[in-house]
């Protein structure tokens, strides 16, 4: 069984776009503009969306209001329960130096 992929860092890029770095070196820039209906509407403004952080316990993207996102969905391993996934703007792997 492989290790679960977790979020290593998150950076707000503007609008509804986050750059998420995962524990396996994958980096995804994700646009959440079309994926913020329902409960996610509570963070659908620049100030609140920009407060995204890494939850140190769950190692996923979270916000101060308690909302958090499944790292496996963000990584692209499973479909979101809502059926609406963020759009991948860019994706790459970090180079490992030895």
Descriptive account of the structure:
- This protein is mainly beta and 98 residues long.
- It has a four-stranded antiparallel beta sheet. A two-stranded antiparallel sheet has the order 4-5.
- The protein has one domain (7-93): NE0471 N-terminal domain-like (2-Layer Sandwich).
- It is globular.
- The model has no long low-confidence stretch (mean pLDDT 90).
- Helix content is 9%, strand content 32%.
CATH superfamily, please? NE0471-like N-terminal domain
Order of helices and strands: EEEHEEHE
CATH architecture: 2-Layer Sandwich
Structural class: mainly beta
Number of strands: 6
Furnish the topology, listing elements before pairings.
Blueprint: E1 7-14, E2 17-22, E3 26-31, H1 46-49, E4 53-54, E5 61-62, H2 71-75, E6 87-93
Antiparallel strand pairs: 1-2, 2-3, 3-6, 4-5
